[in-house]
Amino acid sequence: MRIAEHFDLYRDTLFHTRATGLSWDEDSTMWIVETDRQDRFRARYVVTSSGTLTQPKLPGIPGIENFRGHTFHTSRWDYGYTGGDAEGGMTGLADRTVAVVGTGATGLQIVPHLARDAGRLLVFQRTPSTVDVRDNRPTDPEWARSLEPGWQRERMDNFLEVLAGEEVERCLVTDGWTATAHLQRKILSGAVDESVDADERERRDERDDAVTMNRLRERVEAVVDDPEVAEALKPWYRYMCKRPGFSDEYLQAFNRPTVTLVDTADHGGIASMSEDAIVVGETEYPVDCVIFATGFETGVSGVVSGTLPVIGRGGRPLLEAWGRGPRTLHGFSTHGFPNLFQLGAVQNANSVKFVHILQEQALHIAEVIARAQQEGARWVEPSPQAQEEWVRTVRETARDESRFQAECTPGYYNAEGQQSITGFTFSPGPVVFHRLLRQWRRGDMADMLVRTDEDADRRTAAPVGAGVS
């Protein structure tokens, strides 16, 4: 609300509104946008940014529908039940037994607050997270006053460069992410050290991984008082098998007498739920409230999931055009779908600071549209040749980490054990990718801008989806 008011977004934004369909109208060369309010809009350009973590995920626990207590997912927090706000003070839980299901990134955030406010807290764990030092502290006012204009952009770019494995004079953000940047290459795009043999690089990474994980396990032992609880909280996998976690309060919460860790690993997870309890093995745990910290479906939002159907030229659905896998130019546009841009990680670069990635993507799209407007282009659409060349580039530069992922515990990094799709993102990393985009924008954009009737005839006559598989 504060952001919307500050930037005057209410004037041009429909909040609490879902787009339910996009259809290309050839006669007007416009998109028809339909919403769940039964609206129909026309737009020359459409940008979809429906996210990759927007659909809450609930566990398929037998009997979950029989539970008569209170339940909610963390993304739909019920302050009417808990009381308080995002800072805590949940007085409504003072005399209640609360269960948290899930110990990933969300669990690390909410458990400390619930540990303080709930009468009793049970934390149900399938797999322990890595929990490194976060070291949050107030910003030194003198240091803040010493910063020159442009400091934020410099730090943001530097952080991205360090995480992508680029050479930098110094690291401006020294935190847990930058300390383990080279280990993150197992999942995230970026440069690897090509100066050493691949087998030697793997041995070195595995050694560094072991050192990092041993340090994190030692931290658990040093912080948690109960040896049995500490043992259950120790992560046993390699570092990037799960999203790294950082907290100065999570492990400490298990030293409270009102907090109990229920480790479900030896029992194959939660067995069932009854009207008033969660069952693990042969043990029932009566609870008043269950909070599901179980995250989101990954990469299935909006366009990719089909919940926002996109119909392009000739009535062809986008997901049909992607039947053999995504086909884009630079991850943004697809042949047969003029003036449509997608934000996200598909066939472009990724990093842990995804807001920065989205900012660069928005800048790129804005510059492409501005160029099209400036030159009076009829529409913007990649040629089939440029699109297939990019698909080939992404696949040929991809690193195959399927062996590493196959040995990991199930999580969203490896699609719950199904492993990720090779060639889904641009492996050389975001810094290389953004440099590539800048260089491409300095060209004539002939493989994207449809300027003349002859260009239009060539694009519409080309077989949509043709090319390499």
Query: Order of strands across the widest beta sheet?
Result: 6-15-7-8-11
Give average pLDDT, whole number.
92
Quick one: how many beta strands? 20
The CATH level-2 architecture of the largest domain is identified as 3-Layer(bba) Sandwich
The CATH class of the largest domain is: Alpha Beta
Low-confidence stretches: 465-469
Can you offer a commentary on this structure?
This protein folds into 3 domains: 1-25 and 32-40, no CATH class; 62-134 and 199-294, FAD/NAD(P)-binding domain; 309-461, 3-Layer(bba) Sandwich (FAD/NAD(P)-binding domain), CATH 3.50.50.60. It is 32% helix and 15% strand. It has helices at 2-6, 79-82, 105-117, 141-145, 151-163, 176-179, 198-223, 227-232, 250-253, 302-305, 318-321, 354-375, 384-396, 402-406, 430-441, 453-461, and strands spanning 19-25, 30-35, 40-43, 46-48, 55-56, 70-73, 97-101, 120-125, 131-132, 245-246, 259-263, 272-273, 277-280, 283-286, 289-292, 296-297, 310-311, 340-342, 379-380, 449-450. The strands form 7 sheets. The protein has a 5-stranded parallel beta sheet, with helices on one face. Helix 12 (354-375) runs parallel beside helix 15. The longest helix has 26 residues, at 198-223. The radius of gyration is 25 Å and the shape is globular. It starts with a helix and ends in an 8-residue tail after the last helix. The model is unreliable at 465-469 (pLDDT under 50).
